[in-house]
Amino acid sequence: MARTGLADPMQPVLRLDGIVKQFPGVRALDGVQLALYPGQVTALIGENGAGKSTIVKTLTGIYQPDEGQILLDGQPVRFPTAQAAGDAGITAIHQETVLFDELSVAENIFIGHAPRTRFGLIDKAEMRRRAREILDSIGATIDPDVRLRDLGIASKHLVAISRALSIDARVVIMDEPTAALSHKEIEELYELVETLKAQGKAILFISHKFDEIFRIADRYTVFRDGQFVGEGLMADVTEGELVQMMVGRSVDQIFPKRKAVLGNPVLQVVGYSHPTEFDSIGFTLRRGEILGFYGLVGAGRSEFMQSLIGITKPSKGVCKMGDDIVIIRSPAEAIEAGIVYVPEDRGKQGAITAMPIFQNVTLPSLGKTSRNGFLQMAEEFKLAREYTQRLDLRAASLDVPVGSLSGGNQQKVVIAKWLATQPKVIILDEPTKGIDIGSKAAVHDFMSELAAQGLSVIMVSSEIPEIMGMSDRAIVMREGRIAAELEGDDLSPETLVRHAAGITSEAAA
Amino acid sequence: MNALLKSRESILVGAILALLVLIATRFAGFVAPANLAAVFNDTSPLIILALGQMVVILTRCIDLSVAANLALTGMVCAMLNVAYPDLPIIVILMLALALGAIMGTVNGLLVWKLDIPPIVVTLGTMTIYRGIIFLISDGKWVNAHEMSPAFTAFPRAALLGLPVLSWVAIAVIIVMAVVMARTTLGRSFYAVGGNPHAAVYTGINVGKAQFRAFVISGTLAGLAGYLWVARYAVAYVDIAGGFELDVVAACVIGGISIAGGIGTVGGAVLGALFLGVIKNALPVVDISPFWQLAISGAAIIIAVVFNARADHSKGRVILKSAEHAQ
């Protein structure tokens, strides 16, 4: 990768100095600094809650800093509105793209600054032509007339980037742009970043993934707890040093997987098929085993898991728990059979934030804590107390709504909820997606502990180190089918990627 | 949230008391116990309907057909009474509950099985139910002299100093309080409204819970239908016209979140009483009924603003120092 020219005494396009942002009772940013240079990628690194989102919002005119200054080309500026930041050439591509689903690609690219005819009406032909030009310049083969909702996430990113280019952005902020992308799409994004660099854009790249930071960033800036910790050139820093700056302590990136003693088969799935989503899925899960499910986004892993717990119905297939065939037609029946699913999007699909902690925990276990439809409050509290204590949940009382807890504690409530059903099989869908390195280690620890206690875990993950580090065995899915089942020496990053991408063994060998 | 809701309810109690004090300065007789009991009695149908509506709103739906359901049930009861004057009241009550439940079932099935937005379903059934009243009655009124004395006397009969109508409302309040706080059914309503995506994974059938909410709302509307027609001793196509909006307003004023998942029986009852006091007090203190509408409207907006502010998160604790300071 080209890292030439870094030694030049280059002036930053945009410089933030001594930024303080105060919320009632909270200093979200406490005198932070950040510099972005033309033609370079600066990675902004920090754990969840370090203040990364706040700085992005400050840069894009959504928040006003209480103290400190923003210098554009050395001149102090203020961004009272998002429009002002846009006019100054600062644009952000968010985790969830903020585009308009019902508008066409061209309309999305030019919304707010569409070319006009001489009567002041939108010049559609011109808009389409220029959209085509911009899309071509980044090598995107998207039809400018297609409605945005018909595009995949990766294509939406391309539209967002085209929009950035259309307003002649000088600073492009990418907030976890790869979070929802598959391997191939990420590669395309990297190429695009190189294109933007070559055009002299200053890029702020926010990511949790160290491999990608080292791959594409030229510089780094680290925040911790709302404060500036350090900055420098990527070439001068190691992964360990960055992690240490982030967490303020050294973290060994060792997966805590204990060598498990595997017991009898707990769950056997044979020939699970769905008309459109997956075909002939079969495997055996043993007691105390962590079974990894790897695949690219859209390989059908979550879809299969959802049918296993009865949310969608398979057209064929048999599911056996122990020696008995079980028929699961609804999540309630899955819970009864001892299979629980912790969904990927825990914010949306996890806790009920307006409900007290104890009610959240007992929700899937209400059969046990009620008689004839009447709730037994004492038993509810007992169950909730038992499992929240096991997870070391910190809360003033079990009566407070989950919404008042911190993110980490909310997650504990969600996990306590599922453990309280005393499952035999727990399915964790992307258990560490989007969480910081410290919390990741805690989740991994916990997973090992569950397996050691005899619970069988199915872990759906798109992160190779996690699959490698945690699973006893890994199943690779591709295009709705099982591409490989890997174990022991066969389980390597290369084999995972090869099977997931569909590269045949001979070709790779 | 419990503490917050309690405080929200105590604010409502405070508002009602303040209103009463204000009215007492103009017309002391209003706050006499007998008159307050009369106000409660007058508000009873609104309380009964608001409790049904509350359940529906908790599950992120809305039932606009309650007033039409009330009117149709009331008309059927009145016509039955005219045709069979000897039919015992208990049979008429059962029929009213059953007919209301059937109309609620129709709403619920359309929402659950056909996945039609509740506002569209109940807007449609509202019109259909009103239309059916016209068809079965030919647009004619059923007047007091056609009804049997027993039929019209039931809601007015005094029991321990209060009319039966008031006692029915009190019974509904108690039953609903138990259902919402102490049964798995009540819990499922809160879960579905609080986070339908999460509720699915915990084994709750979201559509079915919404269906049940509509059945409850319909049943209570049916009950209110007989009581209404018997109390006012008249049945015609347009009775309780527009009353569904009062019912929704009572819920909103009572702190039932229109976004679902938040709200209590106490809140809905207080919301209904607040409207009841305004409706009964303004004429006696000589304020035009048009002001009454404006005041009800203002109360709704104030309640919504208040709820929205209460829901506002207070920002995140990010700095370690701030966390310790708390």
From TrEMBL, chain A:
GO cellular component, one term: plasma membrane
Keywords, alphabetical: ATP-binding, Cell membrane, Membrane, Nucleotide-binding, Repeat, Sugar transport, Translocase, Transport
Residue ranges of coiled coil: none
Membrane topology: Peripheral membrane protein
Primary location class: membrane
Domain of life: Bacteria
GO molecular function: ATP binding; ATP hydrolysis activity
Domain ABC transporter intervals: 14-250, 261-504
Signal peptide: none
UniProt-annotated location(s): Cell membrane
SUPFAM superfamilies on file: P-loop containing nucleoside triphosphate hydrolases
Name of the molecule in the record: Rhamnose transport system ATP-binding protein
UniProtKB/TrEMBL annotation, chain B:
Keywords: Cell membrane, Membrane, Transmembrane, Transmembrane helix
InterPro entries named among the record's database cross-references: ABC_transp_permease
Superkingdom field: Bacteria
UniProt keyword ATP-binding present: no
Annotated TM spans: 38-59, 66-84, 90-112, 119-137, 157-179, 213-235, 247-278, 290-310
Gene Ontology CC terms: plasma membrane
Cell location: Cell membrane
One function term, GO molecular function aspect: transmembrane transporter activity
Topology with respect to the bilayer: Multi-pass membrane protein
Main location as per UniProt: membrane
Record's protein name: Rhamnose transport system permease protein
Species annotation: Donghicola tyrosinivorans
Source species taxonomy: Bacteria, Pseudomonadati, Pseudomonadota, Alphaproteobacteria, Rhodobacterales
